[in-house]
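Practice problem: predict the structure.
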Amino acid sequence: MTMAKLNDGADDSEWDRNTQDTHEQKFLAGPRSRLSELALALRIFGECIKGFRALHFLPPCVTVFGSARFPEQSEWYQLARRVAHELSKTGFTIMTGGGPGIMEAANRGAREAGGLSVGCNIVLPHEQDPNPYIDRFVEFRYFFVRKVMLVKYSYAFVILPGGFGTMDEMFEVATLIQTGKVKNFPLVLMGKSYWAPLVDFLRTKMVSERTIEAKDLDRILLTDDVAEAVEHIRAGTATHLRPVRKPNVLLGERRVHVRK
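Answer:
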């Protein structure tokens, strides 16, 4: 299935900034009536079930993060496209936020390699459509539900240059790795000239102040070499990739078909 192209008039800089749905704003606005809180809890539960049903039967995924603002001619767009292409050739499904920029590049690389391409995002702002290189697309109302799904169904993260959202995802999984909540989860930063100042700060300031340990940074690979990134992910996940689960047709579940 090929998704519709982005609206010509859409501003990529607004992707993922505002949403048409106000449920998350209401949830974060403080305590409400007991009935309202119960309704929100049930809605969140339903959102989780929606994600489980959509993503449960995917082959092993690698999630690629990065800014929606980079155009096709950007070096980071092309780097995301290449690494997703090579990861797809090794058998990984590529998952992104489903938008333009780095997300489109990664989904495009997967599509060009004949691999499975997935988009997983918040309810879309300004009536924008997902990028046209996605085989399966899931929308969520709540950021925290989306983040759970991205970690739960991914075996590694590849982080390319991006803004607050990209850094949020990077530090979220770095914290999960640091605290042992997830194990054997490769975290790869690509775009050395972009990320090097941040990594230098982490090493020279945070390690020296003992707010993190040097071994926490050793778990992060910083590289521009596609082959090195792919081999790092392959080696780091080889011993714990789970077999693809079989759907139950009686429950209305469907197998995810991978193009040959």
